[in-house]
Amino acid sequence: MTADQGRRRHYGEFYGLEGDVAEGAGASGSAGSAAGTDAPLAIVFGNCQAESLRIMLDGPDLRTVRVPPVFELEPDDLPHLERLLSRTAVLISQPVRDDYHDLPLGTAQLAALLPASARVVRMPVVRFAGLYPFHVIVRPPEDASLVPPVVEYHDLRTIARAWRERLRRASPLDQALIGRNRFVETTTGVRIREIAAESIAQLRRRELHHDTVRVSDLFAAPGFEQMRTINHPGNPVWTAVAARLRERLSLGEHVVDPGRELLNEVHAPREPDVIRAFQLDAEPRADWIVRGRAVPPEEVERAHLAWYAQHPDVIDAAIARHSTALTTLGLLPPDVVANPAAASAAAAAAAAAAAAASSAGATPPHPTGRAGGAGFAS
């Protein structure tokens, strides 16, 4: 069986396959509790989170069909999607912009293909940073599909180190200036809780903007069972979201036990500072767990630093995108996060001037930690 054949079988009902060769309906993915009934058809559309919600939502009163995540869909898939939408009673979708990947995959575009009687319910993309405050997602400006090796999540501590390493390469002769740019403050429980509060606030803003089912309040008292990474919720979250969707659709209560942990391939480390910040009953774990293998954080950091050396624009993109978190956690000073590239350039210029003055026999200017917004008091 080729990879394409395996994919088509995995999404069998989506592709119109029948009989033993088809998969993709119901909570188990093969034969749901509403299969073969007159229960209304629902599809859940979005990123990798959509399939987890579909599994937890399937029941005797709602038949669901497995659909490829939006980022996997190609032009040849459009006729199959249109055929499915033409008989869909409920479209549950994360907010997707019009013409995503130059294809008519926006939520509004899909809704226009539904029967007149169909309902559309939106759910947010679930991201919560409180349990993993140092981890972020960055889309490189050169290619938004690029991701770092080993794990796809960036660590802000590694980003800050990569910025300092770049400064060191630009200013190899001025170790005093480099030392003044270390600027690492102690991460406290207060800082971690600030990250959590801002993450909840961002999620709430997205819920209100897109009129989605509410999820943000679930993280008022966070626990590791809720999130495996910043964007991979655990089963308890999906159980709660499915119940809220059923309520919005005026369906009866129905709890699904999928028989496995969903979105289970990657687990982020559990930091002692986070456990203390939220007074969690949990043991710290330094390693990442990737497909069952323990991966030491040092391995991830080495791989990511090498990757940043090949993709230096990612450093500036990460600092610009996550400036609030970097300053909240005390990893970089405000004037660096305001313009990281300019700060590096100014530091390099200051070091070059100092080297030139020294070689000319003059007393080099002492770096004040403020010139050009590049140096910082230790």
From TrEMBL:
It comes from the Bacteria. Residues 356-378 are annotated as: Disordered. Residues 42-252 form the Polysaccharide biosynthesis enzyme WcbI domain. InterPro entries: WcbI (IPR041307). This is Polysaccharide biosynthesis enzyme WcbI domain-containing protein.
